[in-house]
Specification:
The chain has 251 residues and is an alpha/beta fold. It is built from eleven helices and ten strands. It binds adenosine-5'-triphosphate.
Length: 251
């Protein structure tokens, strides 16, 4: 597929309203994300962060507004059609096949690829992630939490997405493993031009690798800005980063 036009955002949300059968959770959210950029979604419990990721993947009830990918309105497309266009989603929690080997899991991730492409795609993932190559023949369930998270990203990356949606990739990992996962995500954006939209509980770690931060409150965008600025915004530090607001912050 051709690369996105430089003046077009890869992903654009226009006044998106989406939710579940009981009603909308997102009440008109707009923002855009360019190729190779990382954006973190912040917000309290129930603000609609995971719902937003699912809505970009097409896994929610749509109530209004639009999702554009490379300038094309994809609002009516199903998740498989969005995956085929280049949108990959790694949901929260463990989602590999624990009893299958790492290589078999990669094969499962690449099931939408043409049969002739699968072997090369698996080899490319094993080359990209040496930790997976070392354990290619081991059952996924025997990998560490951090290794499983890398495997789950690789199971989606094998399809060659240009936008990766990550729901809490560092959840339940040790600080060292969290750092490894964040380094992997940063590398994807920097080296492969993949755009990443991420929900994270480790906000310091996530913001450190993000270009942009988008704050949701009760299904609405409360704030959007460069991650480095949002990270020191007194309101954000107070509400989400557990930091005390100092005179220097407020100045
Ligand atoms: N499958 C569902 N059906 C109906 N309502 C849901 C469903 N999943 C989530 N919700 C509701 O949508 C709202 C937003 O949930 P969501 O998971 O998007 O929030 P969040 O910002 O990701 O929160 P958290 O940080 O707690 O995961 C909540 O009120 C939740 O109860």
């Amino acid at each position: 597929m051709s690369p996105p036009l430089p003046d077009l955002p890869l992903l654009e949300l226009r006044d998106l309203r989406a939710g579940y059968a009981a009603g909308p959770i997102l009440h008109g959210v707009s923002f855009s994300l360019a190729a190779g950029r990382i954006a973190t979604l912040l917000g309290g419990n129930g603000a609609g962060k995971s719902t937003l990721l699912r809505a970009v993947y097409g896994a929610n009830r749509h109530y209004g507004g639009a999702v554009l990918f490379e300038g094309r309105d994809i609002t009516a497309l199903s998740p498989p059609r969005r995956l085929a266009l280049g949108i990959g989603f790694v949901p929260q929690g463990r989602c590999n096949f624990a009893a299958m080997t790492v290589a078999e899991n990669l094969l499962m991730g690449g099931y939408t690829l043409k049969r002739t492409e699968r072997e090369a795609a698996i080899a490319a993932m094993l080359e990209r992630f040496p930790v997976l190559a070392r354990k290619a023949g081991e059952a996924a369930g025997n990998l560490s939490g951090g290794e499983q998270q890398v495997l789950e990203m690789a199971m989606v990356l094998i399809t060659g997405p240009r936008l990766l949606l990550l729901d809490e990739p560092s959840l339940g990992l040790s600080p060292r493993m969290q750092a490894e996962v964040f380094a992997t995500v940063a590398g994807l954006a920097r080296e492969s031009g993949v755009a990443v939209l991420m929900v994270e509980q480790n906000l310091r770690g996530a913001l450190a690798i993000s270009d942009t931060a988008i704050v949701l409150e009760m299904g609405r965008k409360f704030l959007e800005g460069p991650a480095a600025e949002v990270a020191v915004d007194p309101r954000i530090r107070h509400a989400y980063l557990g930091g005390n607001v100092t005179a220097a912050d407020a100045a």
